[in-house]
């Protein structure tokens, strides 16, 4: 079983897996928040979705309220905000935890992966990004302040798109 086979819940309450959501696509999994200084990254994430959805990649948002309570809404409110403010079309998960004892199993595994500086451990803040291959391998951990349109992000996506 890979990371992509772990059970997860969509924001509409449907239980699924990352594999069922993305099929054989590359995944950019991002913990998100609606009331954060980094919230405008939603626009960049949607731009990536628009650019790469037909080329073998999907963004998946994972709303989380663990960082200063910056995602207080219900799953429905979060979805409405994302659609109205940023025209988000990529899948959103049900609100979950990314750190600590209550961390979702996917994030317990993801936080074992080191970033470019060789640091693993807790998610630092909202909008930390993990690029996951179709085989379930974490290709890259990208810290929160790195914008979705950063050349590093684009190059990593381009280098890992399915053939």
From TrEMBL:
Keyword Ribonucleoprotein found: no
Stored SUPFAM superfamilies: Thioredoxin-like
Alphabetically ordered keywords of this record: Oxidoreductase, Peroxidase
InterPro entries: Glutathione_peroxidase, GPX_AS, Thioredoxin-like_sf
Example GO molecular function: peroxidase activity
Family per record: Belongs to the glutathione peroxidase family.
The name this protein goes by in its record: Glutathione peroxidase
Lineage: Bacteria, Bacillati, Actinomycetota, Actinomycetes, Mycobacteriales
């Amino acid at each position: 079983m890979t990371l992509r086979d772990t059970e997860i819940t969509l924001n509409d309450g449907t239980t699924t897996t990352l594999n069922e959501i993305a099929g054989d696509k590359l995944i950019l999994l991002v913990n998100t928040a609606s009331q954060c200084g980094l919230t405008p990254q939603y626009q960049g994430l949607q731009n990536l979705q628009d650019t790469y959805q037909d080329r073998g990649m999907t963004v998946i948002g994972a709303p989380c309220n663990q960082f200063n309570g910056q995602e207080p809404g219900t799953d429905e409110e979060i979805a409405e905000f994302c659609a109205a403010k940023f025209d988000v079309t990529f899948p959103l998960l049900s609100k979950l935890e990314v750190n600590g004892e209550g961390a979702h199993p996917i994030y317990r595994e993801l936080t074992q992966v080191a970033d470019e500086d060789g640091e693993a451990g807790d998610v630092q803040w909202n909008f930390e990004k993990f690029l996951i291959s179709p085989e379930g391998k974490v290709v890259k951990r990208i810290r929160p302040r790195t914008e979705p349109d950063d050349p590093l992000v684009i190059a990593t996506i381009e280098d890992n798109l399915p053939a």
